[in-house]
Amino acid sequence: MGFRLISSGGDTVDPAFMNIAASGVINPNNPVVLVAAGTGGAMVEGGAGVDTTRTAIFGVCLDYVQGASDTNVRVIPFHPNQFWEVDCANAATTAQVGIRQHLSATRGYVHNQATNVDSLNRVFMPVAMTGLTTGSGKLIGYFLVDRTPGNA
Question: Domain residue spans in the chain?
C-alpha cells in the first residue's frame, strides 16, 4: 500500500491532485520529490528515500511511470491538514508516536524507530498507530514539509 491519504481536513471528500511532469521511475502510492529542471521546468521524480529532506519532499504519486520526462503523473501535494496512513519498515509501536521519522531507503515505507532526532530528513510525524505490533501495524500522521522560498 505504501502511503494512503486518510483525511484531507474539512469537508473535502476527494484529495486534490496535480498533473506534473515526471522523471525517472515513479511507483504509485509512493512519495516523490520536486526538482528544478533546467529549461524543462520543475518536475517530480521518484526515489524519495532516507535522504529526502523536508525541503525536497513534495507529495504522493498516484501513477506509475518509468524513465519518461515527457509524461505527466497525478500527485497529491502534501498539505498541513492531511493525515496519512503509512507502511512501516519495522514493527509499529506506540513508542514511535510523536517521534519524527524518515523514509526507508527501500522506498514505499517509513523507517520507523523510537529515537527522536530533529534533522531535515525526518519528514513524517506520527500521531497514532493502527493495527498490530507484530509487523502489520501502520503509523498515522502528517508530513513535515518546508516550502519556505530559498530552502530548496
Answer: 11-77, 83-143
User: Largest Cα–Cα distance in the chain?
Assistant: 48
Residue range 74-112, pLDDT digits in tens: 999 998 889 999 998 888 888 999 999 999 877 788 988
Q: How many CB atoms lie within 10 A of CB 22?
A: 26
Measuring CA to CA, how many Å separate 117 from each of 43, 74, 102, 114? 30, 32, 10, 10
> Cα–Cα distance between 68 and 58 in angstroms, integer?
19
Rounded (5°) CA angle 78-58-91:
75
Burial of 93 (0-12, 13-18, 19+ CB in 10 A): middle
Q: Are 58 and 44 in contact (CB under 8 A)?
A: yes
What's residue 143's pLDDT? 94
Using 50 as the pLDDT threshold, list the residues of the chain that sit under it: 152
